[in-house]
C-alpha cells in the first residue's frame, strides 16, 4: 500500500519536530518527507519530484506565510491537502484558510486527539 507523503512547515523548528513526533506515521500509512522552517523552502519541496500529498503548515512565517504557500500551490494546480496549525485565533486567518480549501485550522497548543483525527481523515 502506498504511503502518503507529508511535509511539515513551521518557522519554530522545535514545534515542527514536535508535530512530527505526534503523528502515528505507520498507523496511517504516512511518511514524513521533511520538516522545514519556512514557506519558501516548503514551496521548493512542493515543486520538486518529492511533492507531498499533505502539508501541515504554520500560518505566520517569514518570507512566505502558510496562506501564501497555499495560494502559490493552488496557482500551480497542485492537488495537495493542507492542514493549518496556528497560535493565532484571529477569525480572518481561519476564514482565509477555508477559502483556500485547507482541510482544517488547528490552534496551538495542539490537542493530540483532534489533530490525529484530522490527519487520519486527510
Brief account:
The protein is of the alpha/beta class and 122 residues long. Helices cover 39% and strands 23% of the residues.
Task: Characterise the protein shown here.
- The chain is α/β, with parallel strands linked by helices and 122 residues long.
- The chain is 39% helix and 23% strand.
- The protein has 5 helices and 5 strands.
- It has helices spanning 13-22, 39-47, 66-75, 91-99, 112-121, and strands at residues 4-9, 30-36, 54-58, 81-86, 104-107.
- A 5-stranded parallel sheet has the order 2-1-3-4-5, sandwiched between helices.
- The protein starts with a strand and ends with a helix.
Write the layout of secondary structure elements.
Elements: E1 4-9, H1 13-22, E2 30-36, H2 39-47, E3 54-58, H3 66-75, E4 81-86, H4 91-99, E5 104-107, H5 112-121
Parallel strand pairs: 1-2, 1-3, 3-4, 4-5
Helix pairs in contact: 2-3
Core attributes:
122 residues, alpha/beta, 5-stranded parallel β-sheet, 23% strand, globular
Report the strand count.
5
Describe the largest sheet. 5 strands, parallel
How large is the radius of gyration?
13 Å
Cα distance spanning the termini: 16 Å
Order of helices and strands: EHEHEHEHEH
The strand order across the widest sheet is 2-1-3-4-5
